[in-house]
Amino acid sequence: MCIRDRYMGDLLTRFLQGELVSLAENAAPPDDMFKFETGTAIETTSDGDSELKPRKKLRPLLKKLSEVRPPSLHYAGVAYGLSEELFRFWRKNGFEPVYLRQTANEVTGEHSCIMLKALAHPELPSGWLNAYTSDFRRRLVSLLSMDFSELDVKTSLSALDAPLTTNAKGEDDEEGGDGEQSATREELELYLTKFDVKRLEAYSKNMADYRLIADLLPSLARLFFLHRLPGSFRLSYAQAAALLGMGLQHKAVEKVAEALNMPVSQLLALFNKAVKKLTTFVKGVFSKEIENEVRARRVKADELLPLKKGMDSDVEDEGRAVVAKIEAPKDIEEELEGRKAGKGANEKKVSSRYAVDADEEEIASAIAQGKTDNIVLKRRPDAAQDEALFAEDRRLPRKKNKKK
User: Fold this and answer.
1) Contact call for residues 86 and 110 (beta carbons, < 8 A)
2) Distance between terminal CA atoms of the chain?
3) Longest Cα pair distance anywhere in the chain, in angstroms?
């Protein structure tokens, strides 16, 4: 089937989806309602000779689309030799690449490409073709450094369907793309270390040559062309071509500049801006993850822990403590009074230890007789008990006089 422009492609798609159906009353019925001759046109005469005769009812070569019942199809496909012009034409008609032959054709030197277009069908869910296109993009990114290393940069860029800006300055558009989920910190750590980020930052500040980050370009290119960046992250056509040629195809910057028909200095300036945007994204992901970890730790430290006791038991304990504080002064007064009474008795018992075992008359007669040089004190029989009382009296607390 020959399709020359986009309008014809749209008509074909509508017909295959059953949208071009005539609603007129005098419309011709579909071809399956006619009866056509399907047997042979050779007849045998009475003499035994064969004779060819034309058929009376044959299928017409050309029909109106309203007279043909469309087949029930899941998708429409096309195969051709890959070139930039043909790829763009079929992409505009809604076809997506799913296969690219790794070996070139011996005659034309082109790689055979197969593209599919999903048709509306009740048996299949919408978006089933995205899995095939994602797998094609992933394989192509890996093969660009091997079998497709000599493929034209422009053709490779068209096949990867990179998120590009609509302006020449390479500024991000306001509306984001429909890319996949953005890369996380764990995924970035598989490709880049903190020292690699420092090198990217040094190059983005024009403090190092681009050769210092040449080993990091494949990782950055995979993140970009596999749509692992936010949907709003976009590069200009020249920036994406430089990242593809230098990062995936491992070409020299001079060859990439020659393919894009621009000076090397201009290409390196645009490439520096692209690396600066990629570095900003990588640093933002690392910073955001660290902030989330710190915030999670703070929330975990400040969260309320479950109570070991119930509310009723806490209320009872507080009530007992209040009652104990109210009754405490009475108990203290009684204890002090008891200590004072005990102390007085002990003092009396201790003082009786040193008492003289004589009455007043015996003392007076002794003095009258002049016996005053030596006074003999006899120990009382209960002296051992008095010593015990004295030791107990020494252990009693003493009140210290506060100095004013």
Assistant:
1) no
2) 118
3) 200
Q: CA triplet 134, 231, 189: central angle to 5 degrees?
A: 75
What is the spatial distance between Cα 138 and Cα 245, in angstroms, rounded to a whole number?
Answer: 16
Q: How far apart are CA 377 and CA 388, in angstroms?
A: 20
CB atoms within 10 A of CB 186: 8
- Measured distance CA(181)–CA(258) in Å, rounded: 35
CA neighbours within 13 Å on the CB side: how many for 36? 9
pLDDT digits (tens, 9 = 90+) for 276-309: 999 998 888 888 877 777 777 766 655 555 656 6
Separation of alpha carbons 163 and 29, rounded Å? 48
Nearest-angstrom CA–CA distance, 260 and 237? 10
Q: Which residue matches tokens 């750590």?
A: 189
Residue 387 is predicted with a pLDDT of: 60
Question: Are 157 and 241 spatial neighbours (Cβ–Cβ below 8 Å)?
Answer: yes
298 Cα distance to chain centroid? 20
Low-confidence ranges of the chain (pLDDT < 70): 1-7, 21-57, 65-66, 166-181, 298-310, 327-359, 370-404
Beta bridge partners of 52: 42
Are the CB atoms for 90 and 115 separated by under 8 Å? yes
> Alpha-carbon distance 247 to 387, whole Å?
103
Taking the CA atoms of residue 241, residue 246, residue 247 and residue 250 in that order, the dihedral angle to the nearest 10 degrees is: 130
Residue 99: its H or E element: strand 96-100
Predicted local distance difference test score (pLDDT) of residue 174: 40
Euclidean distance between CA atoms 397 and 94, whole angstroms: 102
Confirm if 230 and 281 have CB atoms less than 8 A apart.
Answer: yes
Residue of 71, 221, 78, 240 lying closest to 153 (CA atoms): 240
State pTM to two decimals. 0.61
Give every CB contact of residue 226 below 8 A, 6+ residues apart in sequence.
137, 138, 141, 180
Of the candidates 167, 164, 178, which has an alpha carbon nearest to the alpha carbon of residue 234?
Answer: 164
Among 185, 187, 188, CA closest to 291: 185
